[in-house]
Amino acid sequence: MHTNSKLIYEGKAKQIFAINDPNQVLIKFKDDATAFNAAKKAKFKGKGILNCSISTNIFEYLMANGIPTHFIRRDGDSSIIAQKINIIPIEVVLRNTAYGSICKQTNLIPGTKLKKPLIDFYFKNDILNDPLLTRERIKLMEILKDEDLNFIEQLTYKINTILKDFFLNIELDLIDFKLEFGLNKNNEIILGDEFSPDNCRLWDMKTQNVNIKSLDKDRFRNDLGDLIEAYTEINKRIDHFMSSP
Ligand code: UDP
């Protein structure tokens, strides 16, 4: 950990520290897990390190494929250094397969493959319980201009194309994921937050057994057990893929 680090924000799964460079922050991945807007909480020893490792690899891969992100470098086991950004209070969810909340709000059967990817926007606001947004509501609240929302949407589709193929290589089916974007010091929209099994769904294509195919936070949400084992397996497959010639 850097000297002079001052905690500036504590989230459910990460802490953000100010460091000497005012345009950068240190982000530490915690072992804490929450679900259902923190109604359910637990600690998983080693989750912070695993998510830091997974997210580092994914962000490096995305950047190598032309996606602008806040990531600068890994800093020790469970932290990264990133550009300081102003987070846009919208959670961008992309779905390839229907699962989770969409199945409670529509008549789609869990596991239905969507004909094309669907993007849902949610208001990042714990007090309001992160409600589903419409484009018109985003405009009404003056969170983003239409052109910026379009840019974020296009970037999200591109990220999906890159990552769906990436995960296919290691026999993981990318069901859905959540992204957060922010504005850096040059007012550019870049990808922030993290990409880990805490905020995506990954199903093991090596099995059809519903009790073991979820290798993501559903192991905690749905009391399936073996969360660390699942995250370790993802980390291992990514490491193996990234280090093979
Ligand atoms: N997600 C997230 N943070 C949230 C809500 C959802 O990271 O506050 C992720 C979740 O892990 C999943 C995707 O977004 O990969 C879609 O989640 P969904 O809307 O189905 O909600 P959930 O089933 O988590 O209630």
Short descriptors:
30% strand; Phosphorylase Kinase, domain 1; five-stranded antiparallel sheet; single chain; alpha+beta; D-amino Acid Aminotransferase, Chain A, domain 1; 245 residues; 6 helices; four-stranded antiparallel sheet; binds uridine-5'-diphosphate
Describe the structure.
The mean pLDDT is 96. The chain has two domains: 6-83, Phosphorylase Kinase, domain 1, CATH 3.30.200; 86-226, ATP-grasp fold, B domain (D-amino Acid Aminotransferase, Chain A, domain 1, 2-Layer Sandwich). It is built from six helices and 14 strands. Strands 1-2-3-7-6 form a five-stranded antiparallel sheet. A four-stranded antiparallel sheet has the order 10-9-11-14, covered by helices on one side. Helix 1 (47-64) runs parallel beside helix 6 (227-243). 30% of the residues lie in helices and 30% in strands. It has 245 residues and is an alpha+beta fold. A hairpin with a 3-residue loop joins strand 1 and strand 2 (14-18). Residues 91, 93, 100-102, 130, 176-178, 199-201, 217 line the site of uridine-5'-diphosphate.
